[in-house]
Amino acid sequence: MTAQAAVAPRGVRRRIFGESGLDAILPYLLLAPTVLLVLAVLVYPLVEGARTSTGFYRFGRRLRDVGWDNYLQALHDPAFLGSVGTTLQFVAAAVVLETTLGLALALLCAREVRFIRAIRGSLILPMIVTPVVVGIVFRLIYASDVGLVATLARSVGLAPPQILGQPNAAFAGLVLLDVWEWAPLMFLILLAGIQSLPVEPFEAAKMDGAGGWRTFVDHTLPMLRPTILVAVTLRSIDALTTFDQVYVLTRGGPGTATQLISIYGYQTFFQFQQFGYAAALLIMVALVVIAAAGLAVGLMRRRP
User: Fold this and answer.
1) CA dist., res. 39 & res. 45, Å (int)
2) Residues 132 and 201 occupy one common structural domain
3) Which residue, 22, 55, 183, 303, has fewest beta-carbon neighbours within 10 Å?
4) 75: burial class by Cβ within 10 Å (0-12, 13-18, 19+)?
5) How much is the CA Rg of the chain, to the nearest whole Å?
């Protein structure tokens, strides 16, 4: 009798909560903080940027609506098109080098040998350094008077190279900086992918007498392809919006050699105070990034 009396209230409470609809709305209540955060940091800025991109501003005040004129101006702006080309070259060079280096390091560190954990930890150290600090350090390294590169050149009797003063050298130096900082991210993602692969295909290949290269081409690379696609997509999206390192290292110079879209948008907005036009530029970039991310997700979901 006592047990029945103890069970009854729980059943009654369960029916009351079910009838009140709390069980139905509880998942939405738990998701509400995340949804509000996404709306605050993603949706609202995008909507406000789209509204700003259709206006003409003078000294921070919206004077009139111009509709799609800012977008049409961007399509005929040589400076913007040049920054798009520079950005695409930067993303392609940096992501290819980071993926290749990250995959090579992941393959080397996939085996459990002595001190491998310490080696893995040391390899990801560049990734945790603040991008602004990385830009400052590399600016000191590339300095033509007291920089590390200049000191090494003098020590072997060569003239100090003007890395930040020559367009091609400055672009290559920027790519090298990005590879040094973000190749560890590719290494970390690809190492996790390699360690999650099944061992049966590799054991079968070893029994069949397949060498290391054939095993990599026939088994490792095909099974690792989804992980590589995820890593390349994430890194490409991040590289498209690179700003800190470029601003600290070169500020888009010399000339426009390292003027990425982010730098051109910053200059247009803050220096030239063309708020509507700058918003249109960045909205176009955001739409391209969203489309690329959607395409990558669609490709990852496709089944062979």
Assistant:
1) 9
2) yes
3) 303
4) exposed
5) 27
- pLDDT in the model for residue 3: 47
Amino acid at 254: P
In a domain, 70, yes or no: no
Helix 275-301 and helix 221-240, axial crossing angle in degrees, nearest 10: 170
Query: Residue 292 gets which letter from DSSP?
Result: H
Q: Measure the N-to-C terminal CA separation of the chain; round to a whole number of Å.
A: 62
Please check whether residues 91 and 151 belong to one and the same domain: yes
- β-pairing, 61-65 vs 55-58, is antiparallel
- Residues 140 and 259 reside in one and the same domain: yes
Q: Are residues 102 and 162 in the same domain?
A: yes
Global pTM reads 0.84
| Closest C-alpha to 196, from 229, 226, 151 | 226
Residues 21, 85 within the same domain: no
Whichever domain contains 195, its CATH number is: 1.10.3720.10
Rounded to whole angstroms, the maximal C-alpha distance in the chain is 99
Q: Which two tokens stand for residue 212?
A: 């290391």
Find the DSSP H helices in 39-166: 44-52, 69-75, 78-109, 116-123, 131-142, 148-155
Condensed to tens digits (0 to 9), the pLDDT of residues 193-232 reads 999 998 888 888 888 887 888 888 888 899 998 889 889 9
Q: How many domains does the chain have?
A: 2
Query: Can you point out the beta strands (E) in 163-269?
Result: none
